[in-house]
Write a structure and sequence with these properties.
The complex is a heterotrimer. Chain A is mainly α. Chain A is built from seven helices and no strands. The relative contact order of chain A is 0.17. Chain C is mainly alpha-helical. Chain C folds into two domains: 62 residues; 30 residues. The longest helix of chain C has 25 residues. Classes of the chains: A mainly alpha, B mainly alpha, C mainly alpha. At the A-B interface, helix 1 and helix 6 of A face helix 7, helix 8 and helix 9 of B.
């Protein structure tokens, strides 16, 4: 059986998969929208509890990682494989930084007794309870996607080293990059909705 | 088997130079083999669902306890719903016949992502296994109904956790099928296979694929939220924690209403294939049927809250969604009118697939029109959550999608197996099933109008007559269906061998040998005419 | 049927850097404006900035600018469906 290399088809497939991710998060964004509409004051109050510094730093980290990813693709298209490999590793490193930050942030919140089903959370007004529950769900689901995205890119890096992703056939890396940008995209919305709603 | 079987072994036989065996099926990337795996699994699960439904009807034959207690009854109707919806109806036509015939109909060698295709089947199997596991592990089989409504699903002690994970995985399987079909239709059409020469079955699968890709993730997040409610104590649907149970219903139906079109659109595609072949004339209004598939897919995403008229949502929403529901009736009606017009003045040849198609049109029309009764907010309030609803959706899903599936089985049977079943027996089983179907479900409309609530274990004596007729109908229907499956089974083993094109159809799959060889075509076909252009096409039997 | 990768547009490094710079500026803006209170408009401002950023990422980093009509139409459809799901839900929650 001869091998199909349908570059355009692979990209269409990847975009379709990204849509499923958008709509998966979409269900949570829908809940967020409804509850923001219902509890504007409580969301305002609870949003102030989150560390804006952490949020902003992580935004910068993710956007910069997206830049590295885009540069990695451009480098590979120009045939500069080694540079591309390094840029992919930098992207993954920034994913790690993001997760470490997230860990400290969650850790601090949990240390204050604010996590789903905790007595501390249940003592809050209903609107703030909803805010924090959504916060954990949405950033948690996003965090899982950061982990998966990082793993996919690491695998792409491996494929480059063994010569299966090349300047001629790099659709795996490009699709991995698309996934990574989507992770960034979701965070671009999560950041203002949780850290900046005032 | 036909004469060319020697040079090109059919897809049932091992590839030249390989040993074959079970693994060559279970890990096959051949779309035809994957379609067959799906077909056999779906038929098996259908028989399971059928048996469950049969037992439910048996319990309801008379008031009071007949053969089981109330908790068993609750578990049975939950399981009947989960099995029929997620394991039979949603995969059914796309995963089985779509996989087998979509690539052949567009002149391709396979789907775009063959390995994702087999992964999708494995996810289906894992999901099915988990669904079974949820019955026998934990503290009892789920008793929530297939809709998993909160607050009950969040607090019941039965094994809902495993069941919702099963649904999540099955959703993933469905997404992969849809994703594959969309990409395949965009990328792998043979030279000359323009969008307006695409068989209508492919058009319906294209529209279905979009619903699978765009709606199923919402189901995914919804069942994950149930899981989070139960395991993490996140209270997003719990009013005592600031949550809102009605939002669960919104999320659930944002998927599950479009899912109704995942079920019915492929069946509509099958009917659009069968009718012109047996009327010997081009389908009436090709472009409108193709377009109405897309219109149904789009409009189907606008109407979900008509399942929630009495849930306590706002009156404004009731009116808006009631109005939008009428919009979706338009493209469905376009199809029905076009089918009937296709038959008009055709030189009709009556064969079993046509009988099933005609049964589809009749039953789907009843199901569709009673849908309008439910879609009008005023009448909905009276029949909401009664047997009227049960009758309505069985007419649409079973009468529509089910008979579409049976029609597809009878239409493509000779192509898949290279043999023909006993046509007389097929006609009789269709008739018996049709009579049984109406006897089973039509009394439910009346019961519903009289006020019989759905899902109840017991009922007042005044409903006894309707329930009795309905149970009688379930026996007739089961007889007809078992006869049908037996007849097909016998046809696989002993049927008369047929050639490439026993019906005289003009779509590409009938140019290939029966059964098709591994790579479908000797050379990439070049398409020069439309799918329903019967000029010079004759049945070869 | 087989498209070749090399025929594909390679985005210049300078463009990528410019997009990154724009994203940084927008992040600064969205954090900066939180010291002003526009009332209800706060959310609108935040989401407008976020959507602008999302647009930059999709169009340049994700190469949608350089894709054909088919993929662009697909992306548009997906976001329309999401907007419908959220928008129509508000016929309920906004009028309850």
């Amino acid at each position: 059986m001869h091998e199909h290399r349908d570059y355009e088809g692979a990209k269409i497939g990847m975009w379709l998969f990204l849509f499923t991710e958008v709509l998966l998060f979409g269900g949570l964004f829908l809940l967020y929208a409804v509850f923001l509409h219902r509890y504007p004051a409580e969301f305002h109050a609870a949003g102030k509890e989150l560390s804006r510094t952490f949020g902003t730093v992580n935004t910068v980290v993710l956007i910069t990682s997206s830049l590295f990813m885009a540069l990695a693709i451009s480098a590979l298209q120009r045939g500069r494989t080694v540079l591309s490999q390094r840029l992919v590793l930098l992207t993954v490193a920034l994913a790690g930084v993001f997760l470490v930050n997230k860990f400290f942030e969650w850790n601090a919140k949990i240390g204050h007794g604010i996590y789903p089903d905790s007595p501390g959370l249940l003592a809050l007004p209903p609107g703030e309870m909803v805010f924090f529950n959504l916060y954990y769900l949405m950033t948690g689901l996003h965090g899982i996607h950061v982990v998966i995205g990082g793993a996919v890119l690491l695998y792409g890096w491996h494929l480059m080293r063994v010569g299966r992703v090349t300047p001629e056939h790099f659709v795996f890396l490009e699709n991995g990059g698309l996934y990574w940008h989507l992770v960034d995209l979701v965070w671009i919305y999560l950041f203002p909705l949780f850290y900046l709603v005032v | 088997m036909s004469a060319d079987a020697h040079d090109h072994p059919s897809f049932f036989q091992p590839l030249p130079g390989t040993k074959g065996g079970l693994a060559s099926w279970l890990f096959s990337t051949d779309h035809k083999r994957i379609g067959m795996l799906y077909l056999y699994c779906i038929v098996t699960m259908f028989l399971v669902g059928l048996a469950l439904g049969f037992l439910i009807r048996l319990e309801l034959v008379a008031p009071g306890r007949t053969i089981m207690g109330p908790q068993t009854y609750n578990a049975l109707f939950t399981l009947h719903g989960v099995v029929m919806i997620f394991l039979v109806v949603i995969p059914s036509i796309p995963a089985a016949f779509g996989n087998i015939f979509l690539p052949i109909q567009i002149g391709a060698e396979d789907v775009s992502f063959p390995r994702l295709n087999i992964l999708s089947w494995w996810l289906y199997i894992i999901g099915a296994a988990l669904a079974v596991l949820s019955l026998v592990t934990g503290k009892g089989a789920p008793d929530t109904g297939w809709t998993f409504y909160v607050p009950f699903s969040a607090v019941t002690t039965t094994n809902v956790d495993v069941a919702v994970i099963a649904v999540f995985i099955l959703g993933f399987s469905s997404i992969l099928t849809g994703l594959n079909f969309i990409t395949t239709l965009h990328r792998l059409r043979a030279p000359g296979m323009t969008w307006t020469r695409l068989p209508l079955f492919c058009w319906s699968l294209y529209a279905t694929g979009w619903i699978q890709v765009l709606a199923t993730p919402i189901l995914g997040i919804t069942v994950l939220l149930i899981f989070a409610e139960r395991v993490l104590g996140v209270g997003l649907f719990d009013p005592s924690r600031g949550g809102d149970p009605i939002l669960y219903q919104h999320l659930f139906w944002i998927y599950s209403h479009p899912a109704v079109y995942i079920m019915i659109l492929p069946a509509m595609g099958v009917i659009s294939e069968i009718l012109p072949v047996f009327a010997r004339k081009p389908i009436f209004g090709y472009k409108m049927i193709a377009f109405s598939s897309l219109a149904i897919a789009f409009a189907g995403s606008l109407v979900w809250a008509h399942h929630m008229f009495v849930s306590g949502m706002s009156d404004t929403a009731v009116m808006v969604f009631s109005f939008l529901t009428f919009v979706v009736a338009i493209p469905s009606a376009i199809k029905v009118f076009n089918w009937v017009s296709t038959l008009y003045k055709g030189s009709i040849r009556v064969e079993p697939p046509l009988w099933y198609a005609l049964a589809f049109i009749f039953l789907f029309s009843i199901g569709g029109l009673t849908g309008l009764v439910l879609g009008s907010a005023g009448t909905n309030v009276h029949v909401h959550d009664t047997y009227f609803v049960v009758a309505h959706f069985h007419y649409v899903i079973f009468g529509g999608m089910g008979f579409g599936l049976f029609g597809a089985m009878h239409y493509w049977f000779p192509k898949i197996y290279g043999r023909m079943y006993d046509k007389r027996m097929a006609n009789w089983s269709c008739l018996i099933a049709f009579v049984g179907f109406n006897l089973l479900y039509f009394p439910m409309f009346i019961l519903g109008l009289q006020g019989m609530p759905r899902r109840y274990y017991d009922y007042l004596p005044k409903y006894a007559e309707g329930h009795f007729f309905s149970t009688m109908g379930s026996w007739v229907l089961a007889t007809g269906l078992l006869l049908m499956f037996w007849n097909l089974w016998r046809g696989i083993r002993h049927g008369k061998p047929v050639g490439r094109n026993p019906w005289g159809a003009a779509t590409l799959e009938w140019m290939a040998p029966s059964p098709p060889p591994h790579h479908n075509f000797d050379a990439e076909p070049v398409v020069t005419h439309g799918p329903y252009d019967f000029t010079g096409v004759k049945p070869d039997a | 049927m087989t498209g070749h990768n090399t025929a594909h547009h390679a985005v210049p490094v300078r463009t990528n850097l410019l997009v990154w710079a724009a994203l940084m500026v927008l992040t600064t803006i969205t954090v900066g404006v939180t010291s002003f209170d526009f009332g209800f408009l706060n959310v609108v401002v935040a989401l407008t900035v976020a959507t602008t950023k999302a647009g930059l990422v999709i169009l340049w980093f994700m190469h949608l600018r350089y894709e054909g009509r088919v993929i662009r139409l697909m992306v548009f459809t997906a976001f329309v469906i999401l907007a419908i799901a959220i928008g129509l839900t508000f016929f309920d929650v906004a009028y309850r």
